[in-house]
Amino acid sequence: MNCSCVLTFLALVLAIVKRSDDMRGFVVLPKRWIVERLFAWLMRTRRLARDYERRTTSAEAMVYWSMTLLMTRRLARSRPQQA
């Protein structure tokens, strides 16, 4: 699937980020850590650690379920009383 097809079919813009040739070693690309952190949160759910699902719709539902569990736990956390 080329870039023009992605743009017309999914209304997405594909941006390919390449390293420059003068860089050496491991360099974290901008905003990549946000994606890595999200994947780490999702992998805490046991069912998402492996690809058990046969259909993409059920895999997508499991991602929604995992994020729902994460957010409800955060909302239910006790907070200190404000004066």
From TrEMBL:
Transposase DDE domain mapped to chain residues: 26-71
Pfam families given in the database record: DDE_Tnp_1_2
Xref: InterPro entries: Tnp_DDE_dom
Protein name: Transposase
Protein's organism: Streptomyces gossypii
